[in-house]
Amino acid sequence: MGVITRGFTGRGRRDLNLPPGQYLTEDFPVLSAGPTPRLDLERWEFVLASETGQRYAWTWSELRALPSERVTVDIHCVTRWSKLGTRWEGVSLDTLLADVDTQARFALIRSYGGYTTNLPLADLRDGKAWVAHRYDGRDLAPEHGGPARLLVPHLYFWKSAKWVRGIELRHEDSPGFWENAGYHNYGDPWREQRYTDD
User: Which residues form the Oxidoreductase molybdopterin-binding domain (predicted)?
Assistant: First the structure.
């Protein structure tokens, strides 16, 4: 079901502090479950919906006008590659959640193209997650999730949903696309939480 495209060149060094079962890559492999959406920035919208139905929405220009942060983080894919010291720029989820009155404990992330993934809300707060729109000093390329993707680097990279379009806050957890297909519900790379029984 997944697609591996050029740039995926195989095994790298194992002498670094990587999560168990991971290998280092210098490339940035592109893996997707379907076609890459081509999005019109004039129509792009990011919507955060609280558990009560309250909506908070940003157009592309409104999102880009929010304070941005530059972060350098390691990323780890469930397919076993890790890329160290990746440089991103985006809006912290702390900024987007600042005015949201919520008692929710979970979030369901929705992407253009229909993809979903789930996270505890705590994993989106306290400087742990961003809506990233730049990578390595350039606008985020569509094949890597541009114009914007979720960035949650402390979890396996499938939790960093590409082409993000919104977040629903919920009282109850609701598994997303890969979680319903047998991937672990949480996805901590340091605990090798790849699949349901891990």
Answer: 34-178
pLDDT digits (tens, 9 = 90+) for 101-154: 999 999 999 999 999 999 999 999 999 999 999 999 999 999 999 999 999 999
Peptide bond into 147 cis (omega under 30): yes
Sequence-distant (6+) residues with CB within 8 A of 25 are 8, 9, 10, 12, 81, 82, 83
Model confidence, pTM: 0.90
Q: Hey, what CATH class is 22-34+44-191 in?
A: alpha beta
Torsion angle in degrees (nearest 10) through CA of 3, 194, 114, 10? -20
In DSSP terms, 107 is beta-bridged to: 119, 169
CA atoms within a 13 Å half-sphere pointing along the CA-CB vector of 123: 21
The H-or-E segment that residue 111 falls in is strand 106-111
